[in-house]
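Dig into these lines:

——
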Amino acid sequence: MGRPRGFIEIKRRAARYRPVCERVKDYYDVARLRTDAQSRDQASRCMDCGTPFCHWACPLGNYIPEWNDLVTNNQWDRALELLDVSNNLPEVTGRVCPALCEYACVLGINDDPVTVRENELAIIEHGFKHGLIKARPPQVRTGRSVAVVGSGPAGLACAAELNRMGHEVTVFEQADKIGGIMRYGVPDFKLEKHILDRRMDLWQNEGIKFRTKTEAGPAVIREFDAVCLATGCRTPRDLDIPGRQLNGIYFAMDYLTQSNKRVAGAKIQKDQLIDARDKKVVVIGGGDTGSDCVGTANRQGAECVVQIELLPEPPVCRDKACPWPVYPLLLKTTSSHEEGANRHWSILTKAFKGQDSRVTALACVKVRFAGRQMIEIPGSEFEIKADLVVLAVGFIKQELDPGWQNKKVFPAGDVQRGPSLVVWAIHEGREAAKAINRYLT
């Protein structure tokens, strides 16, 4: 250990954000990168415990205590090598992962846990800044070809691993650019898209082929020796309630995708535009996607933003229902919430009300839960005015098209496990790559 008493002498320094008054005027990253010296101090808080539960909690099995020790000792190149072994997109997880590892940190039992996510980000950004990350095409090619359908985190992780193994990999994407939900679903204020472009350029130089604006159906099975199907989980959960047909009600991913395209310079026809400017915005759904919609609405100049959630308000600290080291469902206040949002829990939307075919309000009622049973509270009915409503209530897993059911096809990511986290998608992609390699060899 570089600093045996580091966890005693140094306090946790979480990510620092730009001032709200500044960041709501643009779509640049809300967070400020730490200096190398600050990252070394934070890495020194790692106790190098005998049983690292952070490693256990991370779906990728990142070598967290090891690269924390290397950073503490200023051995950035070796830390980068270890990080690269287990994670294909640390510049993404270092920004948007919910950090399951930190909630399992042993130090977190009686103190603030190690800033694992920020340490990971510091390593990869140090590597890019100092020219430590370069294209490394495989020395030998196997002559086997693999199609990866979908360019989200699962598909790209699978493609990167298979290319390292020497297979010829082609990634198919129906959108204009590579990146999937990372490009079109995650706002730039959390993940600027030049971060993705930097990685895509690197992988292209390593030999991965990217084909955008291409709808790849089951016919690709005949053209390639194996196929990784990583098309994600695209069907949004809807609210089948009166007034759903009114104009001004949108799915979260439609809203975020259009916003990201506008930030990238795309021109949207006026009759297709989803814009929160000067509108009363209501976001239904209290998860990360809903939070992203809050941040987007604030940047578009919403008059006010209300976010409602069906479930009760989570606790601020761990309770008996979520003991260490399991991931706890705690109250999460994001950078977007800090920018302005009126949040409410235990709210059921009963109907949308409107005038002249446009939504004007939500008819709601307060609820309580008795176990799994939801009970409406009599006399608690109320309305929320709204000009724009965003539905961020999750996604529905779909069964695979029969055409994809073939021994040469290996599903990965959300299409395989249902809606999940980016870190799990990367894990699934890497596991699919191992399975495809075994099949081909």
